[in-house]
Amino acid sequence: MRRFNIFIILILVLIGLQNTSQMVLAADETYDFNKKSGLNTAADKAGYEIETARNIENYISEIITLVLSMLGVLFLILIIYGGFLWMTAMGNEEKAKKAKNLITDALIGLIIVLAAYAIAYFIINSLSSNSLTNTP
């Protein structure tokens, strides 16, 4: 029964990830902000030069954001699983204690991930150069 529950949760997560990726692809195909917004034209007229080349900071920040986002999802799943264990403990003190410990550990991990995300965001923003350079 436990393997079946884990299998069902895994299927639901995969279906959710597939639907969100399809929505992102559909959103990318319908509107191209860079071409249709007119910001490039306004920046040219104002005397700004736009850098189109991607640098290493962008790649590193995308990787860090992806990893920390996945860890956040993992901790959310652990909290939900701990709540499920707690609700199905049926008065068994050992199962309830195990569920409480799992929820506590997941919350501590989530706080660590959020702190790591905030620190990484601050460092990458302070190290990366501005995307618009002023050339009067």
Could you characterize the architecture of this molecule?
The protein is mainly alpha-helical and 136 residues long. The protein has 2 domains: 1-52; 55-128. Helices cover 79% and strands 4% of the residues. It contains 5 helices and 2 strands, in the order αααβααβ. It has helices spanning 2-30, 33-36, 39-46, 56-87, 93-127; strands at 48-50, 132-134. Strands 1-2 form a two-stranded antiparallel ribbon. The longest helix is centred in the C-terminal third of the chain and has 35 residues, at 93-127. 3% of the residues are buried. The model is unreliable at 131-136 (pLDDT under 50).
Throw out a few tags for this protein:
2 domains; 136 residues; 2 strands; 5 helices
Helix-strand layout with pairing:
Layout (H helix, E strand, L loop, with lengths): L1 H29 L2 H4 L2 H8 L1 E3 L5 H32 L5 H35 L4 E3 L2
Antiparallel strand pairs: 1-2
